[in-house]
Amino acid sequence: MTQRNVVFPPGRQTLYERNRYSPAIKSNGFLFVSGQVGSHEDGSPEPDLEDQVRLAFNNLNAILGAAGCTFDDVIDVTVFIVDPESKFETIWKVIPEFWGNAPHPTLTGVGVTWLYGYQFEIKVIAKLPDADMHLSKSD
């Protein structure tokens, strides 16, 4: 079995070990990040929706930073929203604080009925900044 190249953000390894998943894995020049929610360090949800979205992005950015990336390196985003019809506008007014300038990453939005006590989750794939150095000139 191939050893997974796992990326852990500072201060949250116990949370990931307790829940039995990796926050992110580097593979073939890409970073695959597990869905991030607006959880505090102890794993509890932030109750305010706008603050929960901000915290989810801050948790995402901690993982990206641990891998040497920023949100500018993100190429694909999937968001999961509980009851998107009633929450979309509130969530989407927070997004520009983190999203950056065009061109934006691809985006898939999924409405769900349950997120383990959360209202918003974001999952991304990013290109590792040093990935171009490992590609051959013929690529």
UniProtKB/TrEMBL annotation:
One of its GO terms (cellular component) is cytosol. InterPro entries: RutC-like_sf, YjgF/YER057c/UK114, YjgH-like. SUPFAM superfamilies: YjgF-like (SSF55298). GO terms for molecular function: deaminase activity. This is Enamine deaminase RidA, house cleaning of reactive enamine intermediates, YjgF/YER057c/UK114 family. It comes from Pseudomonas extremaustralis.
